[in-house]
């Protein structure tokens, strides 16, 4: 089975964005890229000059299955991913049961192969039960197919455990993903600490709760030489510490999410629980620092931070409402509108942050680039289309968004996973 | 006027003009309260539901009396935290609403709860205290008491001393007093002052003497050590060493300064016995004004389209 995508605009080197290319796909793999490819018996699809990007890879995503199928499942999350242009997503280990042994890893991988339209790679939990006490069977999980080790967005109290996980994982060259939050400081907080929280009478989570853990984890990464990946960076202080660590030559990478560079704590005004996320939305100064970190390469990756929850759990007192955001379907448009249209970064750099960098960090060979021999995971984008974000049309079960009603530019036309076109 | 609204959440939403209007209405209500027959017909045929998720003595009593003086039917639904787990606030609101409530007086341990309730009911919601956010009723009675004693707010120096983090009325007072043109100083242990409080346009002093210096009014807060995280304050004994309002501290204030407290008071902790029993401490005036202010709140909401008209 051969397919030719005709008239594709490619944005990454060595291709010229001024020209249009054809991509020949054989057996789910890109076999040739060139101008005016002719091939007998090939199905021809005319892309019509739209931008074709390597399928996006979401490094930080919750698929909620097994255990929380009522709020999201493999099928809905993969449809949601396709809508957003993501061809590969990951699964945080905080499922039920927790991904802390090879059996759960095998279950998720086999179920994904059977049901998911996209590639799903699980992370393994650092500790048994995500409880932060004893180290999980990282080696067996590695053999079963995990792409990294994560704390599952849980507060990790024990520096000793993290230090040992970092040392141990070096055997397998696995990245260590950490959610940075010192819960003794964030305490009962539910939003960023500061003026808005004081106005609303809500308890705050100070920036130092994140930054202290970032600094601790950087120190441990330096000592152990492990590949540390800091998840969802939200503060100016965290960006600057990571920038310094990279200058020193540490093997550290980090990500942020679209909401951390496009929204501030003011989105919480009127107790808007759709803007309740962890780490919390910060201030305009933090947004500026994150944009600078994206521009100068300090921040490697943009992940969605997709963490679905039910509307019932959102429609509550702010203190009690669940954290979470439905982000797969809005991520690209927000990035394009806020980063590329405004000139913060180029389209090529955005592609790096959404595709090739995550592939590198997660050791996904043959993914994240459009090149001969790579998997035919592609996303076709119409960059001229303006539209309004309407959560009720989301494919995800979590039909809400703090971006609801906002006008954005750039939309996925269709997505190709392993050479197969998906709506 | 922005008072044209269904609900009453706090002083943050009000203009100086709105607050003045409520206070002058409360003065009219005081006239009714001074009659032999304390009944007025303004809420006749209306029902008022007191939906409290926290224990309270004085707030509940004053709302109940206020509603009864205005001829409303009053039902008390004091719930425990246990009820909250069983039934969501919205479901409870719908229940009360469907039974034909015109006013729901909500006291709730979480900030923003009155807004959440108001969105799903037709009745007017009055915030009687939400988490550590606001307590507009208590604040308005403080303001009325200050106005009666001092004639107005412009140029007045008000010191708020104590635990501001856990005092919702203090925050309502800061909104109100700064809007009305008073100069506000706050003082207390730094651990108990609100984050970025200076952005509210108030002066912050860790030394109570500086805050009280030349003050016309001193507002104190309750010190509820038992509810705090133990990292905030070593002991009440140490607190009173630095922040108790006693005659020594009062020397720094204006001679005719008044001292107020939202109650219930712990004698000798927030304010010394000597000051409590002196004429400068006007806690009884505050209590006397509490009913009138709530009557004004009911009256204004019912006039401005509140309730099922």
UniProtKB/TrEMBL annotation, chain B:
Gene3D superfamilies in alphabetical order: Aspartate/ornithine carbamoyltransferase (3.40.50.1370)
Molecular functions (GO terms): aspartate carbamoyltransferase activity
Swiss-Prot/TrEMBL keywords: Pyrimidine biosynthesis, Transferase
Keyword rRNA-binding: no
Residues that coordinate or bind carbamoyl phosphate: 58, 107, 138, 263-264
Domain spans labelled Aspartate/ornithine carbamoyltransferase carbamoyl-P binding: 6-148
Annotated SUPFAM superfamilies: Aspartate/ornithine carbamoyltransferase
Pathway as given in its UniProt record: Pyrimidine metabolism; UMP biosynthesis via de novo pathway; (S)-dihydroorotate from bicarbonate: step 2/3
EC numbers for this chain: 2.1.3.2
Domain Aspartate/ornithine carbamoyltransferase Asp/Orn-binding span(s) in chain numbering: 154-300
Subunit structure: Heterododecamer (2C3:3R2) of six catalytic PyrB chains organized as two trimers (C3), and six regulatory PyrI chains organized as three dimers (R2).
Protein family (similarity comment): Belongs to the aspartate/ornithine carbamoyltransferase superfamily. ATCase family.
Descriptive protein name: Aspartate carbamoyltransferase
Gene encoding the protein: pyrB
């Amino acid at each position: 089975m051969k397919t030719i995508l005709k008239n594709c605009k490619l944005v990454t080197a060595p291709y010229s964005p001024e020209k249009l290319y054809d991509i020949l796909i054989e057996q789910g793999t890109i076999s040739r890229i060139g101008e005016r490819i002719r091939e007998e018996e090939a199905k021809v699809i005319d892309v019509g000059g739209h931008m074709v990007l390597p399928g996006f890879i979401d490094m930080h995503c919750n698929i909620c299955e097994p255990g929380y199928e009522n709020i999201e499942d493999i099928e809905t999350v993969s449809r949601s991913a396709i809508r957003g242009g993501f061809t590969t997503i990951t699964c945080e280990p905080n499922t039920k049961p927790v991904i802390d042994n090879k059996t759960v890893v095998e279950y998720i991988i086999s179920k994904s192969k059977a049901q998911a339209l996209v590639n799903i790679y699980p992370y393994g939990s650092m500790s048994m039960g995500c409880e932060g006490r004893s180290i999980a069977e990282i080696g067996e999980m590695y053999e079963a197919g995990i792409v990294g080790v994560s704390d599952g967005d849980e507060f990790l109290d024990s520096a000793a455990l993290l230090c040992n996980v970092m040392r141990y994982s070096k055997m397998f060259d696995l990245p260590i993903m950490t959610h940075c939050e010192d819960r003794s400081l964030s305490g009962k907080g539910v939003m960023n600490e500061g003026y808005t929280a004081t106005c609303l009478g809500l308890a705050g989570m100070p920036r130092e709760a994140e930054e202290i853990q970032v600094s601790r984890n950087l120190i441990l990464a330096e000592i152990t030489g492990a590949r540390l990946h800091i998840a969802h960076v939200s503060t100016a202080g965290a960006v600057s510490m990571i920038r310094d660590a990279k200058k020193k030559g540490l093997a550290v990478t980090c990500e942020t999410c679209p909401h951390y560079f496009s929204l501030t704590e003011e989105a919480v005004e009127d107790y808007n629980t759709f803007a309740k996320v962890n780490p919390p939305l910060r201030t305009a100064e933090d947004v500026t620092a994150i944009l600078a970190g994206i521009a100068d390469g300090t921040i490697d990756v943009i992940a969605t931070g997709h963490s679905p929850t039910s509307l019932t759990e959102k429609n509550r007192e702010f203190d009690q409402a669940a954290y979470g955001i439905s982000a797969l379907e809005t991520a690209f448009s927000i990035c394009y509108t806020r980063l590329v249209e405004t000139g913060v970064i180029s389209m090529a750099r955005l592609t790096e942050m959404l595709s090739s960098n995550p592939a590198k960090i997660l050791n996904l060979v043959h993914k994240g680039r459009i090149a001969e021999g790579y998997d035919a995971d592609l996303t076709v984008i119409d960059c001229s289309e303006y539209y309004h974000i309407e959560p009720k049309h989301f494919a995800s079960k979590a039909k809400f968004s703090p971006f609801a009603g906002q006008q954005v530019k750039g939309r996925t036309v269709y997505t190709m996973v392993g050479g197969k076109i998906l709506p | 006027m922005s008072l044209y609204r269904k609900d009453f959440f706090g002083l943050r939403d009000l203009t100086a003009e709105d607050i003045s209007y409520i206070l002058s209405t409360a003065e009219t209500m005081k006239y009714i309260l001074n009659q032999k027959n304390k009944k007025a017909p303004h809420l006749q045929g209306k029902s008022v539901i007191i939906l409290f998720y926290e224990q309270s003595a004085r707030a509940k009593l004053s709302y109940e009396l206020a509603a009864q003086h205005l001829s409303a039917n009053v039902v008390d639904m004091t719930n425990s935290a246990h009820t909250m787990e069983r039934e969501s606030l919205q479901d409870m609101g719908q229940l009360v609403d469907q039974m034909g409530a015109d006013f729901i007086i909500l006291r709730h341990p979480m900030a923003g709860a009155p807004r959440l309730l108001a969105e799903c009911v037709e009745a007017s919601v009055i915030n009687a205290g939400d988490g550590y956010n606001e307590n507009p009723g208590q604040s308005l009675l403080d303001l009325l008491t200050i106005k009666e004693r001092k004639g107005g707010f412009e140029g007045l120096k008000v010191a708020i001393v104590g635990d501001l983090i856990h005092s919702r009325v203090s925050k309502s007072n800061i909104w109100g007093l700064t809007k009305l043109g008073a100069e506000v100083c706050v003082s207390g242990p730094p651990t108990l002052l609100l984050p970025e409080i200076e952005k509210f346009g108030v002066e912050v002093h860790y030394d109570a003497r500086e805050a009280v210096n030349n003050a016309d009014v001193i507002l104190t807060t309750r010190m509820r050590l038992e509810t705090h995280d133990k990292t905030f304050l070593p002991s009440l004994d140490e607190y009173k060493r630095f922040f108790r309002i006693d005659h020594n501290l009062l020397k720094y204030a204006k001679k005719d300064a008044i001292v107020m407290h939202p109650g219930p008071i712990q004698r000798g902790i927030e304010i010394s016995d000597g000051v409590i029993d002196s004429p400068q401490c006007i806690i009884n005036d505050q209590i006397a004004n509490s009913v009138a202010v709530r009557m004004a709140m009911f009256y204004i909401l019912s006039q401005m389209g509140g309730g099922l008209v």
